[in-house]
Specification:
The protein has about 150 residues and is mostly helical. It has 2 domains: about 40 residues, no CATH class; about 80 residues, Arc Repressor Mutant, subunit A. Helix content is about 60%, strand content about 5%. Strands 1-2 form a two-stranded antiparallel sheet.
Length: about 150
């Protein structure tokens, strides 16, 4: 990926600026690719993330706070994400009778089945996105990214 070519400039970009622009371009490309892969399932990247978090609860409920804490992309509209997943039948929501502010969210069997299908697609996409790297390079890249 040639940064200067993509942003259509001939001037030299300072290394630190170029690095941050490059990271942003890579992030955008990954998001575009992942979004396209999830489109047939009518699920956004954030909804996919919520489903994975709920599956990771292994049958135990999560609340909105738990989802917010564990989201890859931090956002304030977790309630809306859950509402959309609820409408698709991928999650169920229980409101505690003793404390109506306490909401428990579970993944449904339909959500689990869909997530298993999505996992196969995402695995293929991850392979395509990272195919130019060997395992050692990926470890090094992760090590470098940890410095942020």
């Amino acid at each position: 990926m040639n940064v200067e070519e993509i942003i259509k400039t001939k001037k030299d970009i300072p290394l630190k600026s170029r690095t941050l622009i490059h990271l942003t371009l890579v992030q955008n490309k990954i998001i575009e690719t992942m979004s396209a892969a999830l489109k047939p399932y009518d699920v956004s990247i954030q909804q996919f993330n919520v489903l994975r978090i709920l599956r990771g609860q292994q049958g135990k409920p999560a609340n909105l706070s738990t989802l917010n804490e564990r989201m890859v992309t931090k956002m304030s509209n977790t309630t809306r994400l859950v509402d959309k997943l609820l409408a698709k039948g991928f999650v169920k929501r229980n409101i505690c009778k003793e404390n109506r502010r306490k909401v428990e969210i579970y993944i449904t069997p339909t959500g689990e089945d869909t997530l298993m299908q999505i996992d196969k697609t995402v695995s293929k996409v991850e392979e395509v996105i990272t195919n130019n790297f060997n395992n050692e390079e990926l470890k090094k890249l992760n090590h470098l990214l940890n410095k942020f």
